[in-house]
Amino acid sequence: MTEEEAFPAILEAVKTQVAWPSPAPPIVRENAAANKAAEFVCVYVNPEKSEQRSMGTKDGQSRSWTHKGIVLVAIHTKLGEGTKRARALVQALRDGLQGRKVSGVIFRDLNDVDKGASTSHYYVVVGLTFEYYEHK
Questions:
Q1: Mean pLDDT across the stretch 53-79?
Q2: Cα-based distances in Å from 70 to 97, 127, 131
Q3: Could you tell me which residues are beta bridge partners of residue 67?
Q4: At what angle do helices 84-97 and 3-16 cross, to 10 degrees?
Q5: Distance CA 49, CA 67 (A)
Q6: 122 burial class (0-12, 13-18, 19+ CB within 10 angstroms)?
Q7: What share of the chain is helix, strand, coil (3-state, %, to 5)?
Q8: What is the C-alpha to C-alpha distance for residues 86 and 43, in angstroms, rounded to an integer?
Q9: What angle do CA 17, 122, 70 make, to 5 degrees?
Q10: What would the mean pLDDT of 48-52 be, rounded to a whole number?
């Protein structure tokens, strides 16, 4: 799996593998146009490091690599409605992806930080580590 394949797979996993509580929030990419919706989830995919797993054959073929990173998921909910909805969305993300392998991407640890209120939303930032393997 390459980076060009992994990043869309991660976004798709956030959209389809999480049983978001109803009504499901819109899921947008990091560089999507500013979203003025009352509630939305923004996904940022950040590669961190790559490590060679195997040397391959004598002619250098079939080398294996492990690529690791973190998915930052910013959950924005209506301002002034408390934290219950935001916490339910965090739990849905945890239940849907933590410890699972989806489309070749392995999702590992999940940590979240309540960031509190902005000018228009209450938000929580969730960090979800991931890894995938590439063969060259």
A1: 83
A2: 13, 6, 9
A3: 50, 132
A4: 130
A5: 6
A6: buried
A7: 20, 45, 35
A8: 15
A9: 45
A10: 86
Would you give the distance in Å from CA 101 to the centre of its chain? 13
**Residue 98: both structure tokens together:** 């933590």
114-115-121 Cα angle (round to 5): 110
Residue 57 has pLDDT above 80, yes or no: no
Q: What is the mean pLDDT of residues 84-109?
A: 94
How far separated are the first and last CA of the chain, in Å rounded? 9
pLDDT in tens, 105-125: 999 999 999 888 887 888 899
Asked if residue 135 has pLDDT above 90, the reply is no
